[in-house]
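Entry type: protein chain
Record version: 2
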Amino acid sequence: MNTKPVVRLHLFFATENSNALILRRAKDRLYNLISWDRKTDSFVEGQWIKKYVRPDYCSLSPDGRHFLYVVTNADGRQAASEHYTVISRPPWFTALALFPQGGLWQRGGRFLSNNQYVIEGDMQTDDIIGKAPGLTQIVRGDVTRTCRTGLRLRNGQPARLSRALRDQLLDGVSPPRDTAMDRYETQAGRLYRRQGMELELIRDFTDMEPQFEPAPYSEDTHPHDAPGWHPLDQERPR
C-alpha cells in the first residue's frame, strides 16, 4: 500500500506581469515556494517551511513582489502565536511583516494594490516584525466626519482607495476571479498548460528534496530585541 503523501500545487498569479508563485504542499506540515516566470517557463526554487499553511487565505501582490500567507496550528509558545498572517518576499517565507491573530476566524488578508493590503478579522493586531517599508495596511473602523467610509490607515488618516476597491471592502465582495488559472491545471505535483482539450506538461514537481536555507534578506528581519533565530527565517535541520 502506497502511503506517500500526495503533492499539491497551489498557484498565485501577478496581474501586472508574467510572474507567478507556486505554493507546493509536500505534506501537511511541509511546504515550499517556487517562483515561476510564465513567459519563459523558468522557475526559482525558494524556501521551505515546517508549518501548516492555508492556501485559501493567501494573496500575491499585483506585481508579484510580495506574498501574504497564513499559518495555523503553529507553536503557540512563540512570539508569532498559534495563528498568524505573514507578508514575505517570494519565493521566501521569512516574514517582512507578521500579524499574530487570535483564532481561526481572524486570519488572512489580501493585497489591494502593490503597496496596500488588508488583514482580515475583527481584532486588528500589530505587525511584530516591521520590515516591510513601502507597504501600507488598510484597516476598518468607525465612520466619522473625517473618515466617511471607516477605511483608514493605521495612523487614523482616511485611506485613499479607488471606488471599486472601496466598494469591495465595504460590501464584503471578493476580488474578481483571476482568469489566468483557466490556462493552467495542476495534477498532484505536476503543472500543465491547457492546449485546447489537451494538457501540455510544463514541469513535474513531484520529487523535491527539502532545503532549509535562510532567505537572502533574513538578517534584516530580526526584531532588535529578539534572539539570533526567528521562527520564519528557516527550519533547523533535524
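Comment: The chain has a mean pLDDT of 84.
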